[in-house]
Batch of 2 targets.
Target 1
Amino acid sequence: MIILTGGAGFIGSCFLARLNSQGIDDIIVVDNLDDSGKERNLLGKRFSDYIPKDKFLELLEHGRLPKPRHIIHMGACSSTLVTDRDYLMSNNYEYSRRLAAWAFEHHLPFLYASSAATYGDGSFGYDDSDENTLRLKPLNLYGESKHLFDLWVLKNGYGAQATGLKFFNVFGPNEYHKKEMMSVICRRFDELKNGQPMRLFKSYLPQYKDGEQKRDFIYVKDAVEVIWYFYENHQACGIFNLGTGVARSWNDLARAMFLALKIQPKIEYIEMPAAIRDKYQYFTQASMAKLRACGCRHKFSTLEEAIADYATYLDSKTYI
């Protein structure tokens, strides 16, 4: 039996589909089915039970669930806009710590989602070595909550028992419920299809022209294949970047969307909200050496390939 937290969420539900594709359905899905519509991510998928996240830990810690053979912890609040520190610390840090402590006590493989938000403004680069992780300074509370858990893992000597994945800018099917946190690709697709321009944030740093801010965009299908690699090779422990290793600009992303739609590019640059200007990441690019050194050889889609594939889902909002 596998425990999959966040199993109704974006990445979690895509990985649930991957497990199902391998004939694996003895899975307890843990999540919070709010009014966002993410329950649709579970349609057509096979799992043995669903447990609300608020009840799950008590059941687990009191021995009222069968012992799993693997815990995959994708559940978290991933909004960078949340300003309630207590909520993020409870939901993202304390919950993860309790679940991980239980897994380590029972000698179980524990794979969890970290985030590239832990890298902050990139002053220390994007090296996923333990030494670099220890000195990072996130820009927002979400990144801070993820970073604190990474630090807890490392400082308590659990780096050889856990596998953490620092997800960069993941996009793809099943993100439709994420509202303001869905990718620009998902949020703007229908607008572009209907002839509206792509609106991108202006740059407020002289070294970056408007739209030339760069991110490491990764398609969810590629992210899922890397999770699958670590699921099958759970002895490969540590904290790893999960991007593509190639930074692309927002202008590149916009042009790829217009290409997929077979429409002439039309881009406008708009003011960035003042509230996020000092917390904005102008450049992210995953260092991939550590991932490759552990044996993962997955070939990532290009941005153009990924957006072309995603467009086939966005036309009718279909799911993986």
Target 2
Amino acid sequence: MRITGGKVARRILKAPKGLDVRPTPDLVKQAVFNSLGGRVVGARVLELFAGTGALSFESLSRGAVSAICVERSQRHAEVLRMNSAGAGFGPDALQVRVQDVFAVLPQLAGAGSQFDLVLADPPYGEKNVGRRSTSLAQQLLDDPNLPRLLVAGGLLVLGHTKRDTLEIPAFWHEKKMLKHGDSVMRFFETR
């Protein structure tokens, strides 16, 4: 796994060994950031279910001014901090919050925090033919705090498996969808 573009392109990122982590594949990251283009420059980024922090590092390498990574696992957060130091990102550029995502969302919304980009590629859910999804991706879309965290014109980029059929709440407008293998990355704005 590596950073695919920007000032620290090709930097190898470490992933926690023996732990249940599924980093966003390099080809998928590259497609997402090629689609985002200049929107990343100067952006304030929030990465949910950060795992290795690959999406935040990609953002910072491509010109984002700051990133907050939310990761529940202390062990994953330690590897994330090591990767940040190894890539040369300063302490002001990356903040790591070791918390559950669904506890952080109301805290950030209550504090009035807002971001240009919210990136989330949570653990995949199960196939849900004939029933409503219960996946983490669906729970994120359903959370009323999440739209409050985006600035006007900001984007939510959400990853999920193609076998997970999501219902899009009325407060989201889908702008784009990218598919690669079993991965789907969807771009949403608030209505």
